[in-house]
Design a protein that fits this description.
Strand content: 5-15%
Radius of gyration: 27 Å
Structural class: mainly alpha
Order of helices and strands: HHHHEHEEEHHHH
Helix content: 25-40%
Number of strands: 4
Shape: globular
Strand order of the largest sheet: 2-1-3-4
Distance between the termini: 52 Å
Length: 303
């Protein structure tokens, strides 16, 4: 039997990451609500909680509600949610710090997010972010001195067909460019009314948070102006229909208990045009030849 050599204990410091300078109890964060504010929040919370069979399921919209009050999450907001839902402050904080949509520091009137995920980045998202950093003289997560713009780089906006995409208070600005992004933030800072590519004219960050909490969107024709799928979104579907493309037929197994799945007969000529009948790409610098195949060893042909 051998014994393991003694090793020194490893001490891990728990807490915020080094780049998280501001916590929920940061300077200027509200620690309690005035009685009139508390009464109003309780009335709103009762409406939200009543929608759920279990009260604790209302935590996410309630976090949006208190964020609409303060512009970010504060000790007062955390305590309010824990009191209403009979949760501990630790339980509420664990959820609040998991999602990036909940802010831990004061937020500007407009939260401007630039998608820097892969497709948007290569289409110009990184250039847009660099332009706004220089133009606004702030970094990711910071707010302009006038309190108007909070700038962030964000992950995928689920709008890759309109890349590069920006979002302001979660409203889309499609096919953006460094120039259009600069014009956009200038218009926001000047107080001009701005309308996104899809949707109603913008409202403030706090007003948006109240809508996300589940309260009516009172902007004129807000729902009607949201529209549907755009031209870029429907291109693939239109191409498939024009070429009579459909999903491959699923072979049935009589032993698996599933009935045969009927597949429309689109004809041999149409099927020949589908991707599944096209040859695989030839070897190249990005698609190297596979070993032990006819690409590299003709003797394997027919095996």
């Amino acid at each position: 039997m051998t014994t393991q050599p003694h090793s020194e204990p490893v001490l891990i410091q728990l807490g915020a990451r080094p780049d998280e300078a501001v916590q929920l109890a940061g300077r200027g964060a509200r620690t309690s609500y005035a009685p009139e504010v508390l009464a109003r929040l309780h009335a709103d919370a009762a409406i939200v909680v009543a929608r759920y069979p279990q009260a604790r399921s209302a935590l996410l919209p309630l976090l949006h509600l208190v964020q609409s009050e303060d512009g970010f999450l504060t000790p007062a907001g955390i305590e309010f949610c824990s009191d209403v839902l009979e949760l501990t402050g630790a339980e509420v904080t664990a959820v609040a710090t998991f999602y990036s949509m909940y802010r831990r520091e004061p937020t500007g009137t407009y939260r401007v997010g630039v998608c820097t995920n892969t497709l948007c980045a290569v289409m110009g998202g990184d250039a847009i972010m660099d332009t706004l950093r220089d133009h606004l003289d702030i970094e990711h997560g910071e707010t302009t001195a006038d309190g108007t713009i909070t700038l962030e780089h964000i992950e995928c906006n689920a709008a890759c067909d309109y890349a590069p995409v920006m979002m302001v208070n979660w409203e889309f600005f499609d096919n953006s460019t460094p120039s259009s992004a600069r014009d956009l933030v200038d218009a926001l800072r000047s107080g001009a009314q701005v309308t996104p590519t899809r949707g109603a004219p913008l409202c403030t960050f706090r007003e948006t948070e109240r809508i996300l909490a589940g309260f009516p969107d009172d902007r004129p024709e807000a729902v009607e102006s949201s529209g549907g799928a755009g031209e870029a979104t429907l291109t693939g579907l239109r191409y498939a229909r024009e070429h009579a493309m459909s999903a491959p037929e699923v072979a049935s197994n009589p032993d698996d208990g599933h009935p045969d799945v009927e597949t429309p007969d689109v004809g041999a000529e149409a099927v020949a045009e589908t991707v599944r009948d096209k040859p695989a790409p030839a070897p190249s610098a990005t698609v190297p030849p596979q070993p032990n195949t006819t690409e590299t060893d003709p003797s394997t042909k027919g095996e």
